[in-house]
UniProtKB/TrEMBL annotation:
Protein name (record): Unannotated protein
TM spans (from-to): 18-37, 49-70, 82-107, 113-136, 269-286, 292-311, 323-344, 350-375
InterPro entries according to UniProt: HATPase_C_sf
Organism for this UniProt entry: freshwater metagenome
Record's keyword annotation contains Transcription regulation: no
Keyword set, alphabetical order: Membrane, Transmembrane, Transmembrane helix
Zinc recorded as keyword: no
Amino acid sequence: MRIPNLGFNTKTPYKVDFALVPAVIVLIEFAIFITQFSQGVNNSLGNLVLMRIIHTLGMVLIAILVWKGFQKFNKSELNFQTLAITGVLFSLAGDLTHGILASIFGIELVSFYRRLGIILIQGSLWFPAFVIIGGYRKEIFQQFKEYENRLVIATRFRGRTSNEFRELQGEIQEGIRKEFFATCIDLKNELDKNMHAGGNLADQFSLIKPQLSGQKLRTFSRLLESSTSSNDAKTLLFRYRHSIILFFQQFRIIYTSAVQKAPLRKNSYSLMLIALVTPTLINFYSITEFLISYPVLLLLIFGFSSLIIKTQKSDSPNAIRNGSILIFVTGFLPMIIKFLWLLISYDPQSVFSIILTALALPLAFFVSVELLQVLRPSALTLIRNDDLRANRSLENKVRNVIREEFARNLSHEWAVFVHGKILTRLAATSLKLEVAVKAGDSEMFNETMQSVLSFLDSPDADFQTELCDLETEIDSRLSPWRGLIEVSVHIDETIKAIRNLRVREVGQVIEELISNSIRHGKASKIDLRITSSGDREIEIESVDDATVAPPRINKNFGLGTVIFNLASDGRWSITREGSSTRFRLVMEVER
């Protein structure tokens, strides 16, 4: 969903939601408490605290009543001007309530003119801003979730296609292959030794038969299969995603993209600082000091705002960093102006404002501006098509997850190969030798032994055999299931002849989803579609008549999840639609 730019166009309608207003009321009440406490209203601290609590509850109640009124009259969208007027009236009601409570609790208030200035600032700027942000908070969160998902997908893709990962694939493959070969060589040596141990065929067979059970290979296959049940890394990425930690770790990258693609305007910096500093100046400055120093401060603020924009747009490789430093420095302008004024006219009543402007204001301004730059819906919308870059921590976590998934999947393939191809061949050899012994056929016996010894010289010859086209691969994966489930298949003509390494992964996906439909969903019929989705992607979609619905939240990530993640970089889903289960997966496959 595209969200309009939250600027200061007074005529543009915005969604209205008071969800954030109570939080803002609490923050403002706390700020007022600090101000009153610093001004010496501490001779009755208990009354001050109690008054502020009652006033906070009263303001929250007024906010709720105003919101209910908007809802009753179907005012779900208002322009900035209307919100500003509403905010001023809301703040005025709060000030009147404040005055009544102050008279009851004996709390001294600042002059009406000072309070009026604060009412105008809070009502015309802060109130509309937080009402508008509240109205779009769901869209903001949704867009950031989409950003998270795209970021993880992009990071997985870069990790899976990187030279480093290809080298890693080779290392894992070589490690399994080396151990497999060592086991086969040991078996070959034992068979060769027993074959030449002498004696008749029956004696030789009695020595050879236990070896042909392939106990070591069987143990090796079980170890490979057990490694696919590891649960340490498989949930790591899922715990890491959709968390506030990701936002903070990605903040600088998001901020850089936002500044480059959708920078704040000069007026945004100026208005933010003016809105932050003006209430403090109204509370603590004398009329003379305010009238003289405030215009000077405004000129400096506008000047530094222009300088910030110019710095961010410069060709310097450190432009973004220098801009951030300048934003922080700009927050010290009120303190500098105050120090200069104290050199001219010392006023002990306004000294406390130095503490506020020196400690709180620069940090508040810096954080507010940087968050505004990133969290503006328009900024998040504009980074949708960016070349997403993950922080080092996320890259490492994704790399570890991909490595774990690849290792598990490859281990499973080898386990199936050893169990299905090798042990089956050894079992068949044992039966042939037994027939030869019973027939007393030494020639058949020796030929069978030479055949198995030759086979053990290159036992991996049939592992990951020659590549076939997409249509043949899918047909071979469906063949074992025909008769168990009714399958209808549609493959786009444009992709039937694709032939590359990714085609095998398509076959694995098909095999796994069919298996899941039968074993977990108890389906008897499935409609399968493999279609082109752009120049470099295909979409696999299946709809079955499963009687058992998939779990809403899958807490157990098995080998099927690993296969789907490796193939699609996480771009897959399974949903229940009426009495059917729909599976959808998108993956990149080069033509």
